[in-house]
Amino acid sequence: MSLRFDLLPPTIAEAHQHFEAWVSAAQDVNDINRLKGVFIGRKASHLTLLTDLLKQTPKESKADLGALINHLKMTWETALSLRLEQLVSASASSSVDLTLTPPVLPQGAVHPIQRLEVHIVSVFRTLGYHVEEGPEVETEEHNFDGLNIAPNHPARRSSDTFYFEAHPHLLLRTHTSPVQVRVLKRLSQKNSQGVSLLESLGGIRFLSPGRVYRKDEIDPTHSPMFHQVEGMLIGKNIGLQHLKGTLSYAMKALLGADTEVRFRPGYFPFVEPGCEVDVKCPLCKGQGCRVCKSSGWIEILGAGLVHPHVLSHAGIDSTAWSGFAFGMGIERIAMIISECPDLRLFFENDLRFLQSMREVR
User: Fold this and answer.
1) pTM, two decimal places
2) Which among 112, 155, 235, 287 could bridge 203 via Cys, Cβ 3.0 to 4.6 Å?
3) Quick check: 205 and 233 in contact, CB under 8 A?
4) Which helix (H) or strand (E) is 93 found in, with range?
5) Residue 1: pLDDT above 80?
């Protein structure tokens, strides 16, 4: 059966004559969508007008008009789909070379200081330590008094410590040791039977990592804000042998199994006796270099047996309980591990440097 184009309204017949030219001239998806709306859209398109016309057509012409509508619908849909595929294919071939390796997007990573802090904590967790936290805004009582630091100690001066003008007894903590004071006070609390929490636990061991603040000039080895990890163990009959065994293990776990550790006498108000812990320089292997100042050793932390005054101040019987404490700077260890000569690089957010630190724990 031949198609009767004479049944088309003049406007639709004219549009159909230009259809192929309009489709060929389409330059993008928007052009195709506009033509779809005109010819086969759901509202006021040529197709919907023809469908409405079919309802009003005399019975003897319905079959002819119906066949013509089906033919036009298929013709318009096929031509528009084919042109859309051509446009998409041309766009893809001109902008993307499918033979090239896909680009690798830059990936974020945990900051090397935080990553090292997590690693330090994980080392001590294997020894039964847990993490305790405290506020960065502290009182003199927790930051100094509870740690046996004398009223005339240089660390209390406003030239060394950040005090709040409106609250002169509040300050930014200069170390994480105030957490030790808070924990010891909590452990000294007794229940209704008169038994302290420390006695019910039989002892405690914990770490207190976090930010600390001091009025230091910014230079390659100093910063007014840096990170520390301090630890404490309280128990019965704790001595230097326990401290040395713990820290020797920790340093080897952090810096390598072949790391040599030595202990030297040192003074800190909150421990007695006190010591400083050195490790054989991992860069020059003890031969002497710029980092270790040609000594072959690097001081890495301070430690000692907890001073009886610190225990007594917290309400703990220093004749029955003893322990040790230690503290280390995370940035200092990071500089040693990474051979970084300048502390400031860890705070400048230079992506090139941070990416180079991905292997630093």
Assistant:
1) 0.68
2) 235
3) yes
4) helix 59-95
5) no
Q: Residue range 25-36: average pLDDT?
A: 88
For residue 5, the model assigns a pLDDT of: 81
Instruction: Give the per-residue SS3 of 290-304.
Output: CCCCCCCEEEEEEEE
Q: Residues, the chain, total?
A: 361
Exposure on the CB side of residue 277, measured as CA atoms within 13 A: 25
Q: What is the pLDDT of residue 287?
A: 80
Residues 63-116 have pLDDT tens digits of 888 888 888 889 999 999 998 888 888 776 656 666 778 778 877 778 889 999
Q: Is the dihedral of CA 39, 43, 49, 52 positive or negative?
A: positive
Distance CA 346, CA 329 (A): 13
What's the token pair of residue 162? 């950040």
Given a cut of 60, whether residue 173 has pLDDT beyond it is: yes
Q: What is the CATH number of domain 112-356?
A: 3.30.930.10
Nearest-angstrom CA–CA distance, 311 and 238: 14
- Helix, strand and coil content of the chain, in percent to the nearest 5, comes to 45, 20, 35
Domain boundaries, the chain: 9-95, 112-356
Average confidence score pLDDT of the chain:
88
Residue 265 Cα to chain centre, angstroms: 38
Contact by Cβ (8 Å): 229, 120? yes
Whether the upstream peptide bond of residue 168 has omega within 30° of 0, thus cis, is no
Q: What is the DSSP string of 29-40?
A: HHHHHHHHHHHT
